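Lecture 7 notes: from sequence to structure.

We start with a single chain of 160 residues. Read the sequence below before looking at the structure.
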Amino acid sequence: MQLPLEIRAKEFKRVLRGYEPEAVDNYLEMIAHDMEKLLAENQRLKEQLDFKEQQLSQFKLLEEKINQALVVAQKTAGEITENARKEAELIVKTAQNQREEMLSQARQEVQKIMDEYENINKEYERFKREFKAVLLSYLEQVNEKEENTKYQQIADLESR
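Now the structure, written as tokens:
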């Protein structure tokens, strides 16, 4: 590829019926000038491409980091969900155990109250029997005394 300086420096042989030298020089100058613009544009585009490639590299790195963060976030979310599920299961199991313990205690308390009631009932029946026996014994004694008193009165009357 010819550089603009080489195009400007190019010299042609002069021949008799050749091209007009001034027109050739003007055309060469225009080509050299266009070539300078193209080379400058090419250099600018290369720099822009390098910059864009650097940006692309940074974006790819950023994308990789975001993907890694996303994977970590998904893993963490999964772990949090699993831990929450396990904790919920533990809470439910603990509540069930507490319920069973409370029910067991309540059953024991009911059984204790029923046993006490049964004992009180038996004690009441025993007291009733004993009290009835005492009353009957007193009644017998009263009846005996009445009879003795009657016989005594009769005997006293007869002895008079």
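Residues 4-159 form one domain. Keep this in mind for problem set 3.
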